[in-house]
Amino acid sequence: xxxxxxxxxxxxxxxxxxxxxxxxxxxxxxxxxxxxxxxxxxxxxxxxxxxxxxxxxxxxxxxxxxxxxxxxxxxxxxxxxxxxxxxxxxxxxxxxxxxxxxxxxxxxxxxxxxxxxxxxxxxxxxxxxxxxxxxxxxxxxxxxxxxxxxxxxxxxxxxxxxxxxxxxxxxxxxxxxxxxxxxxxxxxxxxxxxxxxxxxxxxxxxxxxxxxxxxxxxxxxxxxxxxxxxxxxxxxxxxxxxxxxxxxxxxxxxxxxxxxxxxxxxxxxxxxxxxxxxxxxxxxxxxxxxxxxxxxxxx
Length: 299
Description:
Layout: E1 2-6, H1 15-28, E2 33-38, H2 43-47, H3 59-65, E3 74-77, E4 80-83, H4 92-95, H5 105-111, E5 119-124, H6 130-138, E6 141-146, H7 150-169, E7 175-181, H8 189-204, E8 216-217, H9 226-230, H10 238-241, H11 246-260, E9 274-277, E10 282-287, E11 290-297
Parallel strand pairs: 1-5, 1-6, 2-4, 2-5, 6-7, 7-8
Antiparallel strand pairs: 3-4, 9-10, 10-11
Helix pairs in contact: 1-11, 5-6
């Protein structure tokens, strides 16, 4: 089972669009896929046709009340399930502040589902707080959707640092395996320059011991497409809403690439570590009672 966290602390780069439509494409290809919506905004939940009413079981119940994922997830299409989110999840970071081992709650619950799915996708919000830390602690892989602009490229450095910290202290098996170029405009010189910079950066990392040493920039570019922006309001994936548009073509191609790298990684090994949330809302990873390094700020 591949456990993939789709993360970028910058908003508007296509995290939810990628999570939902890549999951739908893999489900259509016969893979059993489950989406975990870890964003209190619940955009992936809405995108998949579920109204986040705050009353139905959600990821809040999983993380705060230790409810099994099997009691929360719902099937939304053939081979496709979603564990929904709602606004209650926004309170999870505060409610978990005093819970020992809160950074691995999701990992422990996912172990109960080992073998139930071919893919688990975790859609993370635009922050690097406890919810995202749970995703990184649970994942075997990280996909980073990236808009080919300078500011998006600039913010990726902080995300890679966080991934490296979590890999060192909590989840040694964590790897950044894919960069997904979204909102891509092939005719723009800036896009070509950013792609070249990315290729050079990851090529230099090949001989290092970093989690992104084997990262791939997927050849499938997700072109800017109005249909991708429209389909969430109808609660449909791009394949149900406009199956012949460029967006559907691009995500189908991306799914084929992802399947080409299918592997069965071992469950993540978690080292002795814990996190602390201070009064400023900053999350730090600790070990043996000593602060190691600040992970990020809760937005």
